[in-house]
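pls design
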């Protein structure tokens, strides 16, 4: 078995400024940062927003963790071994681990955490990432009891994780929030309030929750029981929750941006148009191309005629060959970049850009003859005389005017194929609901990586994946993904084959990459930004 500590999950080191605890620069060891929203919960097994992940990064440590250089290293585990068939991981935990309240932190805390994560009563939105664990799917579906899950403790310091099939990315997954430990005794003592207030949290990482004033701030202080005291460099962290990132009427910038410029917050992030002030030499502005937008086709329509059309590869390729991206290319703002490939350039393999490793690919753009040929082939195959009644679902978005940009493409589609696609714009909540339920024909969606590897986007099209909102199923793609999960050599080549297969299928037609930005001061080191999920990690921060 090739054992490796996978790199690249949080591959960007960032510098952050010196700030006081509640105002100005009163201390060289107190750090403040404005969160654009309040965490719904700090329960790692239930959390599903970047605000929560930012705080969870600081107060929980898993079997593995993100190291200061961005690679994946060992956390509370001091070693691990893998069986020859790659289905059993045995972790040895460090001796003498404790929670911040004095309770021992043992292998059983990970057993309880995974049982909670996969328990259908938890209703975790991130549980599907761990369906690779033995019996996980059955437990999550309620057909097996949680004690049948393939996670068990041989002793306080030895944890075993059994898999349904090999997963070369398990070490990365074990560093993420859902895989954080949970002490059963303390969980029961909180009486249903675990993760919902400061008093209902304990820490096994470098910092612990001191207080959480809802609507105001979350304050963290050093955890004196953390196993590596040399990693603690701050007196406190304060995450402010009471400031808006939306400019008030008549204002050109938000409260959070103003506070950043005034030195009251350590960093500022945005995924839309960056303010000109962020380019000032006082700040380091880092860009991350981590999102791709594209047109996708519903493969599970309940309308029999629509299903024949949307599930037909020739129909999808007919649309692909109408994609004259030059129609909107010059209209895109600086944070959108036209593309005809799927995996964004910010995604890497072993620290190197995947796009550079993949090289040139066969892509689809405006080709009138091919468009008409594929369209006629679809008509011949399905027996449909004329395609009518199809609509494109688009979510309202202040930063990305998908409706306008697609409007230029729909004109080409109408011209080349005599096909009119209605555009239906809805709010984000309705969009998410209809996408999940399959209540749409075509939709413009964005794809982001859960971790820094192409497979984190490619698996969104895997048969049966919880993230597969299209219902697409293809055995060839599944085979490529299975080889990647097994840790087969030639990762970049396998990812390239999988991406090319998706492009050839026409299931996702790429439109543009979206860039996100992080502006920081230059006085503090050891802070990471995860460009895939937007979570900032301050655990190594030092002045």
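designed seq:
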């Amino acid at each position: 078995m090739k054992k490796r500590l996978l790199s690249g999950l949080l591959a960007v080191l960032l510098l952050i400024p010196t700030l006081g605890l509640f105002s100005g620069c009163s201390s060289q060891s107190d750090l403040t940062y404005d969160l654009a929203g309040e965490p719904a919960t700090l329960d790692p097994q239930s959390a599903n927003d970047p605000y929560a992940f930012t705080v969870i990064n600081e107060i929980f440590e898993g079997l593995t963790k993100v190291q200061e250089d961005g690679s994946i290293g060992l956390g509370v585990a001091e070693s691990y071994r893998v069986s020859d068939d790659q289905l059993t991981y045995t972790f040895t935990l460090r001796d003498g681990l404790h929670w911040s309240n004095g309770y021992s932190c043992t292998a059983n805390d990970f057993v309880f955490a995974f049982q909670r994560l996969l328990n259908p009563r938890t209703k975790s939105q991130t549980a599907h990432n761990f369906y690779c664990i033995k019996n996980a799917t059955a437990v999550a579906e309620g057909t097996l009891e949680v004690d049948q899950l393939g996670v068990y403790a041989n002793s306080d310091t030895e944890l075993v994780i059994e898999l349904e099939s090999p997963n070369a990315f398990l070490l990365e997954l074990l560093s993420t929030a859902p895989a954080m430990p949970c002490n059963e005794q303390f969980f029961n003592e909180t009486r249903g309030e675990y993760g919902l207030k400061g008093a209902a949290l304990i820490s096994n990482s470098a910092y612990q929750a001191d207080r959480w004033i809802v609507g105001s701030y979350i304050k963290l202080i050093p955890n004196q029981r953390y196993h590596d005291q040399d990693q603690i460099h701050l007196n406190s962290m304060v995450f402010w929750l009471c400031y808006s990132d939306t400019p008030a009427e008549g204002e050109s910038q938000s409260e959070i941006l103003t506070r950043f410029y005034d030195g009251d917050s350590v960093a500022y992030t945005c995924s839309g148009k960056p303010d000109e002030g962020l380019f000032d030499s006082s700040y380091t502005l880092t860009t991350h191309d981590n999102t791709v937008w594209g047109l996708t086709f519903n493969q599970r329509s309940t309308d029999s005629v629509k299903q024949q059309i949307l599930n037909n590869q020739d129909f999808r390729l007919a649309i692909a060959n109408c994609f004259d991206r030059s129609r909107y290319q010059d209209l895109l703002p600086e944070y959108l970049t036209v593309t005809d490939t799927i995996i964004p350039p910010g995604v890497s393999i072993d620290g190197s850009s995947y796009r550079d490793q993949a090289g040139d690919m066969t892509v689809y753009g405006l080709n009138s003859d091919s468009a008409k040929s594929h369209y006629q082939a679809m008509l011949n195959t399905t027996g449909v005389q004329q395609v009518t009644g199809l609509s494109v679902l688009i979510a309202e978005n202040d930063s990305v005017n998908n409706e306008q940009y697609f409007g230029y493409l729909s004109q080409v589609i109408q011209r080349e194929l005599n096909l009119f696609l209605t555009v239906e714009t809805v709010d984000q909540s309705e969009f998410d609901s209809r996408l999940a339920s399959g209540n749409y024909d075509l939709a413009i969606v964005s794809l982001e990586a859960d971790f820094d590897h192409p497979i984190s986007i490619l698996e969104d099209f895997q048969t049966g994946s919880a993230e597969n909102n299209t219902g697409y199923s293809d055995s060839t793609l599944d085979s490529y993904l299975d080889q990647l999960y097994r840790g087969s050599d030639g990762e970049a080549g396998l990812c390239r084959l999988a991406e090319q297969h998706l492009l050839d299928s026409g299931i996702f037609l790429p439109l543009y990459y979206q860039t996100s930005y992080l502006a920081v001061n230059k006085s503090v080191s050891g802070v990471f930004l995860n460009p895939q999920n937007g979570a900032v990690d301050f655990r190594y921060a030092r002045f």
